[in-house]
Amino acid sequence: MPTLLAPTFDHTPVRPLPPIPYARLSFFYFAYCLALGGFSPYFAPYLETQGLTGWQIGVVMSLWYGTRVLAPPVWGAITGRAASPIRWLRFGCVAVFAGCAGFLLPLGFPGVLAVMVVYASFYNAVMPQFEAITLARLGARKSQYSRIRVWGSIGFMLANLAYGWLLAHWGYDSLIGLLLPAFALMLVAAWLNEDPPAHADEPPGSGLLDSIRPRLADPGLRRFLLAALLMQLSHGPFYVFLSLHLAANGHSPPVIGLLWATGVLAEIVMFLWLPRWLPRIGLRALMVICFAAGTARWLATAGAADLLLVIILAQCVHALTFAAFHGAGMQVLSEHFPGRSGVHGQALLYGFSSGLGGVLGALGAGVLWEAGGGLAAFSAAALVSIVGGLVLLDGPVRPKAASPPPGERPRGGVLGGGATKPPGGARAGGGGGVGAKPQSSAAAGPVWPDT
Asked: How far apart are CA 349 and CA 330, in angstroms?
């Protein structure tokens, strides 16, 4: 007679998920992008008021992107080993404030270059660190990322409007004095945030190269990094010369500010809708769409910058070329670099793709601007977008075998939603996004299409 076995139950207690400090995380994104919204559109015109030529402006702005090559990896190596990374974030924000104040000194071209190195190094270092802090805070609830990140877009849009109006009345040479209060706000936001709880299985101390080197063997990661570099490269003329291009075509500073704000408003809408769209489209398919949209956007900006309606529509495409691509990219990166290794992934992305891509984009835009103005620069951006789409069509970008961090079994992604099912079958709260699909067991992996 067969022996009947009594059912067994897993009585392992379920560790409750810590609450997410939405307000404090969102506040830092808001303050950081508030300052960035004043800097990005108007710093090139400010440099022009200081007597710099087109190629000199291109060189200065290339340092903005060039510091992304070294600053985030070095900063990530330091903070990745630190017992309290948040202290380094606060120090970095103090250095950003001091660097910005340095532009108030009487500087020639060499002096501007020197101050830019200090200012841009710390400014570009603190955001990838904070992105990693945010994702570590979210843990299994990465679907909530866009809910927090959208406040950065709101801050950027408000800055576009406010700084455009203020500079129209006070002139571009007043920009630095107007930026300092925004950087002071960012410093306050850094002090309000705290270190995220670390996974027991992931103590601090893993080296940057030890974390990155084995992952680079995955062709999906290499393909994603190259695509991200090309997307940044295509935005070179946009970030460096769009305001000058629009001014040359008869648009006033307030109108230029409104046009920048239009792009950010479209970005906000995309961040809010992306959790619903991304699971239906797929990561790689969406990125290809972003490059196709970028091609059309840059061609329109190159040839019809004097037509307000055309430029408004082109700015709306920022929802795809930035917000959708960034959201999908965070999903890809979090799968390649789960848990506390996220700070190394952010350093790699900012250093290689944003940094090197930004340097090449700014320098190339400067040369093309001198040679043929906005028509040449933005036409080249359209060509780069075509190449980026072809790179993604070559193969997948997700890991060969995505493995979630210890204690986290994602059913959605950074933007896709979905709660997790911890050991013992109990359902943890959080996430719950529209992208989640019902699954039969806690061992099921991500629901994202392998694209």
From this structure: 10
Segment 283-332, tens digit of pLDDT:
888 999 999 999 999 999 999 999 999 999 999 999 999 989 988 888 88
* Cα first-last separation, the chain: 52
- Residue 211 to residue 68: CA distance in whole angstroms: 19
Sign of the four-CA dihedral 264, 269, 274, 275: positive
Residue ranges of alpha helices (H) inside 201-252 are 208-212, 219-234, 236-248
Q: Is the dihedral of CA 286, 160, 236, 368 positive or negative?
A: positive
Greater model confidence, 131 or 407: 131
Measure the CA–CA gap between 260 and 128, rounded to whole angstroms: 23
- What span, in angstroms and rounded, lies between the C-alpha atoms of 388 and 137? 32
- Going from the C-alpha of 30 to that of each of 149, 208, 328, 421, the distances in angstroms are 8, 29, 21, 32
Tell which phi-psi region holds residue 256, choosing left (phi > 0), alpha (psi between -120 and 50) or beta.
Answer: alpha
The Cα 295–Cα 386 span in angstroms is 6
At 152, the amino acid letter reads G
Q: What would the two tokens of residue 126 be? A: 């603190």
Please give the Cα distance from 376 to 382 (Å, whole number).
Answer: 10
Phi, psi of 428 (to 5 degrees): -85, 150
Residues 6+ apart with CB under 8 A from 91: none
Query: Which pLDDT value is given to residue 83?
Result: 73
Token pair 């190269």 in the structure block, residue: 209
The closest alpha carbon to 412, from 342, 347, 327, belongs to 327
How far is Cα 58 from Cα 108, in angstroms, rounded to an integer?
A: 15
Q: Please report the DSSP string for 23-41 in residue order.
A: HHHHHHHHHHHHHHHHHHH
The conformational region for residue 166 under phi > 0 = left, psi -120 to 50 = alpha, else beta, is alpha
Continuous H helices in 103-235 = 109-138, 145-170, 175-192, 208-212, 219-234
Question: H or E stretch including 307?
Answer: none
